[in-house]
Structure prediction request, 239 residues.
Amino acid sequence: MLNRIVRSLINSLGYDFHKIKKQEPKHPFSVLKYIIFERMQNNPDFYFVQIGANDGLANDPIRPLVKQFHMKGLLVEPMPDFFAKLTKNYADEPQLGFENCAIGARDGEVSLFRFKPDAPLPNNFFHGMARFDKSYMFARARSMGLNDAIEEIKVPALTFQTLVRKHNIRKIDFLQIDTEGFDFEIIKMAFSLSVLPEIINYEWTELSAEDRYACKTLLVEKGYSFVDIGPDVLCVLNP
Prediction:
């Protein structure tokens, strides 16, 4: 009724209005793909490192790029079952290297806390989630009504410095990070080695408000421009 009254008033003034339906593009433009393609044109030795590669399929922003451009790089994943899937899912990309470890403050062994494989989770996304923070994971499980869904696993750990040395990495053109809230620490570790990748793509949604601000402040200090794209922050080193 109200809509008809409003429309008649507008029509009496010689105007009309129409509802515009927003349509999502069938093939959204990928800024990350464009930047990597552009950089690879002038850099035949383009090399990436992915920290938190999961199984190489689920929620992975770079798998299509690896498959299309056959990018050379190293994929790091700490959980052994996901690591086995990762190597299998990239079995046809021989230019890739793999490391089954967590990136930590020291070399050795660390505890990761994750959802049990048989936990009745509302979304498969949560099966790939793991953290050093025990209290966080137990609280996350309780928020879903799952009081006995978290398990502790022991995994090997390497510092970023050891990882780079072990794989004889001389430069990193693209650093992809998805470590459930540890992304800022990874970036600081890379910068402490004077490693300034041309491109960094990290997940911001699991960072605290303080770390979100501190991370972007550090990126500005190091000469990066960046843009938020969904759950990720895409950063490009200024010339």
About this structure: The first strand starts at residue 47 and ends at 51. DSSP finds eight helices and eleven strands in the chain. The longest helix spans residues 209-221. The CA atoms of residues 113 and 133 lie 7 Å apart.
